[in-house]
């Protein structure tokens, strides 16, 4: 028997599985499984990335000052309260590493993002799953689950994969009701899709116990580049900066993200197209008898009669060259998460689901 063992908790991790991108034997698939921006990054971002090729022999900036000021300027934030990471995933992991360990509890919700549990276990902390109310974050349930051991509370707002969100007053009530040793992390990966929502930034500025995370992977179309950031009280930023790798982000990533955030016209175009196509898709699905909660993000959570129907529909879609996301791992076996693609993709997926539902409704084609 080997005596070489990882830290406790690590072998309990179910490795994260990303959205599929191909189907055996099917050509020209449309990938609607990873909430990627169907329009890709802005031209300015692509040009910045090309230019960065000439400087690949140089080490990158360690303080990310230029990117932080660009983010601060565009979003109206304080640049010294921003920390940049290799995707927001890195920020979420660093928060766990810094604030939660053996004996500590990390709260996430019933249909919360998988990374929260992984990051807690990776650091020896105990993940605590709290119920939601009809696929919506339940502030009272979270507050009731808090103990003296709670160190972090993770919620995504809007949430993935439900697409639902809670309002600012509820977020404030959650932050203010936490025990003194616990911190609220508001994951704003989809915040840019919500008109007039600051992702929780004002809560960060007015409290000591709130952190917001954001990403370039969704609205900005840079999922392949890996850039995210956190907005936190300065003592928390100071802690994170002590443990993050000094060269965690490449110069190519830094300059490309900076160009992306400054291209407000492209972001606005992507946001408004998403809003229009999301409404169209949800309505088209409803006409075929597939319901969904009102989504505030760039995907729709299609709800079927049961697990068997959801899986049969997924199989039918795959055969038609359409890849969506099964979410049984998020306690939603009767659902499929469908990214809002460009218009032809939305039409194709709605048409295919219509064919599936029509073929043998209410059970669908099984
Ligand atoms: C996509 C997503 C992220 C983004 O992760 P990155 O590491 O920034 O690509 C974070 N949280 C949620 C809930 C997401 O869906």
From TrEMBL:
Pfam families named among the record's database cross-references: Aminotran_1_2
N6-(pyridoxal phosphate)lysine: residues bearing it: 218
Pathway: Amino-acid biosynthesis; L-histidine biosynthesis; L-histidine from 5-phospho-alpha-D-ribose 1-diphosphate: step 7/9
Catalytic activity field: L-histidinol phosphate + 2-oxoglutarate = 3-(imidazol-4-yl)-2-oxopropyl phosphate + L-glutamate
InterPro entries: Aminotransferase_I/II_large, HisP_aminotrans, HistidinolP_aminotransfase, PyrdxlP-dep_Trfase, PyrdxlP-dep_Trfase_major, PyrdxlP-dep_Trfase_small
SUPFAM superfamilies: PLP-dependent transferases
A GO term, aspect molecular function: histidinol-phosphate transaminase activity
Cofactor(s) listed: pyridoxal 5'-phosphate
Superkingdom of the organism of origin: Bacteria
Encoding gene per record: hisC
Entries under PANTHER family matching the protein: HISTIDINOL-PHOSPHATE AMINOTRANSFERASE, HISTIDINOL-PHOSPHATE AMINOTRANSFERASE 2
Subunit organization: Homodimer.
NCBIfam families: hisC
UniProt protein name: Histidinol-phosphate aminotransferase
Keyword Transport: no
